[in-house]
Amino acid sequence: MQGKINTTLRLLEENSSVGVLPLSDEVMKNLGKKHPLPSEIKSDSLLHGPITDLRDVAVDINEQDVLFFARLMRGSAGPSGLDANQYVRILCSKQFYCEGKSLREQIAMFAKKIASLDPSCLEAYTACRLIPLDKSPGNFDGVKQVWLADDCSAAGPLDSFFAFFNQTIVEGEKFGYYVNSTKSWLVVKKHYDPEGAAELFKDCDIKIATEGQRLLGAVIGSTTFKEEYVNSKVETWCNELNRLSDIAKCHPQAAYAAFVHGYKHKFTYCIRTIPDIGHLLKPVEEVIANVFLPTLLGQEISQIDRQIWALPTRLGGLGIPCIPNEAEFNLSSSKVISAQLCAQLVKHWISGLPSAEDLSHAKLTVRNDRRERLHAASLSLHHQARGLALSIEPTSEPSSKDSDPSLKGAEPSSKCSEPSSNGSAPSSNGSAPRSNGSEPSSNGSEPCFNDSVPSSNASEPSSQ
User: What dihedral do alpha carbons 45, 47, 49, 53 form, nearest 10°?
Assistant: First the structure.
């Protein structure tokens, strides 16, 4: 894997495909939609007021800064043909001696140079400079809106939402922001006149749904739609886990690392954002417990074994969680950490983010709850395993006197019999010997048992 977890996980996906698309008519048409011609400049789309001159601002970039950030680079090759790994090797490898350091110094000098020049001299660098947009939240009565970069989600009465949608189209074009109606969805509840919504938005290409719709990796809508959405993802996850189990047959360590460091996080976002889905994730747990773990360990596992492997490594487990059991706790933890931010979004209070102190306190609360939960689970498993060990009794085996006619009627010896010549240990009253032997008596001698019978699976006798 060479540390490339995301690249490795793409091997498990059936529909993963990478490469350059051919320049067909359909591809060119889609590119044209994504990059439309610029609109005319309008006065209300320009920035007004004094402009801070940044040419006098000191920029401190040195060779060590370039070295530090070069090690963080990720990505495939661009026009130069060099990907991130090749750049890291050129800039950070000691194989090139002083040449790598000289190149880092030149890059630092170049960065400081372009930071102090007039932007008009750097047209190639400023041609795609972004302009911050004022989204003006809350301007439409009854419409609540939340923006993530250029993606918007809004909710409210149908008439108000229609006005908001049209205004976003008009104002966005002034700043080069074009609403893609074909990728926009309007979710209308069945009892809120979906036919009226279709009539209202008939001139738009917006899609209308009544059951629900995917939203930022989660889902909103009815319970039926939520279950269908989660079941489709569960089916995909089960297929990918089966493929990962096939890899574990030959490369168990690589499969384990891929699951722990990458694949298990696929479930995290869903269980943190979609409520009441623990029972829908049982097929995933069945594949993990019945296919992946037995293949990884090379043996079948019991229910207690599964619970032990779900613990973190510091508590003796493997860090392979039981996903259905984690769903409710992860959802409640997510609500605790994001409570203040959600309250600000609902109230459209954008004066600042939640205080760092409150956020740290919320994270500490969740961390302590998780630690106590895992510690309690570890203690419970310890007691279960101890009780199971105490409940195991030696299995009874038939006496040799029952099988050998020559020994019938023989009186049992009152003394401890010597070990037989075949090396098997004596047993007590015809029962099989314990694997670890009995505890010695108070006088230090080995315990004596009557009617010793050799057992094929007995342990070796201990010397007196």
Answer: -170
Nearby residues of 349 by Cβ (< 8 Å), 6 or more positions away: 343
pLDDT(391) > 80: no
Q: Evaluate if residue 449 carries a pLDDT over 70.
A: no
Query: Reduced to 3 states, what is the DSSP secondary structure of residue 139?
Result: coil
pTM: 0.62
DSSP string, 274-316: SSS-GGGGHHHHHHIIIIIHHHHHTS---HHHHHHHTS-GGGT
Q: What is the mean pLDDT of residues 28-37?
A: 76
Which tokens is 29 given? 């048409």
State which H helix or E strand residue 155 sits in.
Answer: strand 151-155
Query: Does residue 238 or residue 170 have the better pLDDT?
Result: 238
Say if CB 301 and CB 345 are below 8 A apart: no
| 106-110, Cβ contacts within 8 angstroms, sequence gap of 24 or more | 107/66, 108/61, 108/62, 108/63, 108/65, 108/66
Residues 270 and 218: beta-carbon distance below 8 Å: yes
- Identify each DSSP E strand in 166-259 by its residue range: 185-187, 207-209, 212-215, 218-221
pLDDT for res 446? 39
Rounded-to-integer distance, Cα 86 and Cα 54, Å? 34
Task: Give me the pLDDT at residue 92, please.
Answer: 85
- DSSP summary character for residue 43: G
Residues 6+ apart with CB under 8 A from 255: 244, 245, 247, 248, 292, 296
From residue 76, give the alpha-carbon distance in Å to each of 1, 34, 93: 16, 22, 19
H-helix or E-strand containing 145?
strand 144-148
Cβ-Cβ contacts under 8 Å for 184 (sequence gap 6 or more): 205, 206, 207
For all residues of the chain together, what is the average pLDDT? 74
Euclidean distance between the first and the last CA atom of the chain, given in angstroms as a whole number:
55
